[in-house]
Design brief:
The complex is a heterodimer of chains A (543) and B (98). With 543 residues, chain A is α+β, with helices and mostly antiparallel strands. Chain A has helices spanning 6-27, 33-41, 65-78, 98-110, 143-153, 225-239, 250-257, 259-276, 282-290, 310-319, 347-360, 383-392, 423-436, 501-518, 525-532, 535-542, and strands at residues 45-47, 52-56, 62-64, 82-85, 91-96, 127-128, 168-171, 185-192, 195-202, 215-221, 320-322, 328-333, 344-346, 364-367, 373-379, 407-408, 447-450, 464-471, 474-481, 493-494. In chain A, a hairpin with a 5-residue loop joins strand 4 (82-85) and strand 5 (91-96). In chain B, 23% of the residues lie in helices and 28% in strands. Chain B contains 3 helices and 5 strands; from the N terminus they run E-E-E-H-E-E-H-H. Chain B has a 5-stranded antiparallel sheet. The chains are: A alpha+beta (543), B alpha+beta (98).
Chain lengths: 543, 98
Amino acid sequence: MYKYDSYDQAMVDARVEEFRDQARRRLEGKLTEDQFKPLRLMNGLYLQLHAYMLRVAVPYGTLDSRQMHALADIADKYDRGYGHFTTRQNIQYNWIKLEDAADILADLSKVEMHAIQTSGNCIRNISSDHFAGAAADEVVDPRPYAELLRQWSSFHPEFSYLPRKFKIAVIASEQDRAAMRLHDIGINIVQRNGELGAAFYVGGGMGRTPMIAPCINAFVPLDQFVTYAEACLRVYNRYGRRDNKYKARIKILVRELGAEEYTRQVEEEFALLLDQAIEPPLAELERIKGFFADPDFDRDAGDDIDRSDPDFALWVDRNTVAHKQAGYVSAVISLKPVGGIPGDATAGQMRLMADLAKRHSFDELRVMHTQNIVLPHVRKADLHTLWSALDDAGLGSPNLDTVEDIIACPGLDYCSLANARSIPVAQKISERFAKTGKTGTLGQLKLKISGCINACGHHHAGHIGILGVDRKGVENYQLSLGGSEAEDVSLAKITGPGFSEDGIVDAVETVTGVYERERTDGERFLDTYRRIGMAPFKEALYD
Amino acid sequence: MRLLTGNDLRTGAVTWWTGTDWSIHVGDAADVAGNEDEIARREEALRRVNVPYAIDAEMHEGHPRPSHIKDRVRALGPTVRPDLTLKPADPDIGNWVI
């Protein structure tokens, strides 16, 4: 994985000291909160419902064991012994003290991490495929391109005060595991006639106005793709609305201009920028690629797995994914124990995952946007040892992509923007289905819960989506069906009137009952919904 | 009744105005109806509180209880981590929130 050079390290260290001075001045009363707030937000420090919250960037979700250990140490030393992995492949700490914040950033810097651009109207952490470099279906490892974009976007002077926040995802496979078309810019690296290029999708997003990004250019040569991204941002920065926060995202600009006119303006800007030669030199890309070379795989690794232990066999079936190298898989560590808090991990669990990554996965871990952790390169022969260690630590839940594998935002339990709690609903649903024993029989079922319209829990993209709202001071939950953030992307539709906290759990069980009744062989919940439409579900819910 | 709340500048902890000082326990909070702006300005200037604001509340079993669920969660701690709330030993504390 990428290692900081002297420029990276100097930039991050300088920012730590700058923030240390800013925090000191705030504590001494030399800065007001109004003056300090944008400064702390530029360093990922929010003031949340209970305390300061620090969001730490995990570039394209990639960590090594040293970094994961540092995250665990921060949880123990400065927080309350745990962290929360997010839908942006980052980690958040919920109980941070302002007087500690600069020390935490200094500790992060020692392991080549930071919290820069995890808030504010700038280009946020670049996200990517959590199986990058391991996936059997990718045309190339997308991480060097994500890293190049990270370097380009870090402290980019022109894009530090955009109309609104800006999120970019990079993938390189037909299967979309990064919700690529629900980003401000989604880049899919594709192959055409033996050449690699970048397909640009611009103007997607969730939030209060969910939109699927249209493709504005199907093939940008890879030696021009940073320039093309610059052109996309320039048009947005120039014409994106700054008068209305709720209409300031690029998706609104693309919709109001029309994709065709937006694309025309981008192409015009792109032509001008090409003359200015802003594209990073290919040598830099080659240097970056060197950090992402394949690990030293055991070419003789076997494919046999002893499946005599049924619990282990179930975990293998559900939580491991095909790898490009024979004899290996990517193993998903579920952070969704039945009745647990999606995405939370204790410091002890983080240390265990770090140690297992070092032992079994060439020192690599990935954070999934679905709030789980991946060990990307595990020999099949090591799987039982790995699973045993995980299971002993409460990390062996065999529920990837099942109804128990719920995305849930922090909701009203932690977030000052939320209108309703998300986590208790997720807990009750996973407990209900574990109790009825239907988790496995329902197959792939992606359930996503947000506690407010900002949609951090991706409810628009859930096969089943749940949105918490405030109805005269009482939590209420809207149910929606038919969303997908994968390559078959679609936005979920609301079923009708909302439900109480207990009622929404019953409602989810009701719609899965319709699915069980109506499905044909091999059909996922989403497939059945698309085939039969909303009516049978509405009838079961409301008649 | 109205309660004045904010966050401790150094620690970020949720605090409540008691009439003479700030407490992390909402049960200590005083009714500030009519005086909230003046107290907030003064206390913020003294850096004893960060971003203070007033909320609605009612008396409940002899103690103030915020009217809105968000303020009750804020006063207590996350409902999904009873071990981290201000009253971790009280098995019925969740009822106070809901």
